[in-house]
Amino acid sequence: MSNLLEHFYCSYQVTKSPPQKNTYQNTTNMKNIAVIGAGTMGNGIAHTFAQFGYNVQLIDISQASLDRGLATITKNLDRMVAKEKISEDDKNNTLNNITTYTSIKDGVQNTSLVVEAATENVDLKLKIFKDLDEVCAEETILATNTSSISITQIAAATNRPEKVIGMHFMNPVPIMKLVEIIRGYNTSDEVMEFTVDLTKKINKVPVEVNDYPGFVANRILMPMINESIETLYNGVAGVAEIDTVMKLGMAHPMGPLQLADFIGLDVCLSILNVMYDGFKNPKYAPCPLLVNMVMAGKLGVKSGEGFYDYSESRKAEKVAKMFS
């Protein structure tokens, strides 16, 4: 989400709502889900739940972000219609299942599950979960799409740690099958079973992992990306050469530097910092080149330049001038 949203959470004070009756024992009867954040992950999560018939309440403080999120969902659905994966009616039904809100208090009403998909920032997430705990119904499950931050730490910001869980979706959400399901120290068996069952109902594959920095996906992926950046930084090979070795030699669909651009170099840096802080192991320390690129605003695809130049194409066909 945008800096505007972060600013909002630093100053916004919620009013506690009266308790509402809700239940999460049966995913078949659960149809209302809120998603916090209309960015890349948030709109993908909203798209996926809506496509499977759930009523999605998509929340972002920025109306412009909501508009962009809906435009992205519409574009992705149009692509699916063109490929004959869904019908025009399916597309329209999916869009009709999504309602947008700029107020958290209004957006979380009558929901059994809230999925937070905000920026990978610890302080921001703790503030969001504290606020959600105050305005959500007592039985509402609070899930986070964090890719690295401790579920136990996030849960500690609430008075319902047994109902807080990690649901780490992969990007692009409508396509990628995996969802890492992360149990916090106090997450109940009932909430775990509910979340696993719900994940299956949206045609994803849930994999249960334990609550350690980076979980499984990023604990393995990010050191590989970081080492690829170190390899470039040390002059062993160029951008295209490093990616070609990994694509042709290791059968990766895209090279690690291109993947870093796709993820966002700021996101990669944030995840590495979380793991470095959590493990205190120098192998997770981010490469100085990565740090400098993020400070310079070279974030990858979303900024138009990272290891590749995306000014003319999003296909990583041209190495950035700095590295060519």
TrEMBL record:
Q: Does the keyword Transit peptide apply?
A: no
Domain named 3-hydroxyacyl-CoA dehydrogenase NAD binding: residues: 32-211
One record GO biological process: fatty acid metabolic process
Family matches, as Gene3D superfamilies: N-(1-d-carboxylethyl)-l-norvaline Dehydrogenase, domain 2, NAD(P)-binding Rossmann-like Domain
> What does the record give under GO molecular function?
NAD+ binding; oxidoreductase activity, acting on the CH-OH group of donors, NAD or NADP as acceptor
Q: Start and end of every 3-hydroxyacyl-CoA dehydrogenase C-terminal domain?
A: 214-310
Which UniProt keywords are present, listed alphabetically? NAD, Oxidoreductase
Positions that bind NAD(+): G37, A38, G39, T40, M41, G42, D60, E120, K125, S147, N171, K302
What superkingdom does the record give?
A: Bacteria
Q: InterPro entries from the entry?
A: 3-OHacyl-CoA_DH (IPR022694), 3-OHacyl-CoA_DH_CS (IPR006180), 3-OHacyl-CoA_DH_NAD-bd (IPR006176), 3HC_DH_C (IPR006108), 6-PGluconate_DH-like_C_sf (IPR008927), 6PGD_dom2 (IPR013328), NAD(P)-bd_dom_sf (IPR036291)
User: Per the record, where is site Important for catalytic activity?
Assistant: H168
Q: Which family does it belong to?
A: Belongs to the 3-hydroxyacyl-CoA dehydrogenase family.
Q: What is this protein called?
A: 3-hydroxybutyryl-CoA dehydrogenase
State the species of origin.
Answer: Tenacibaculum caenipelagi
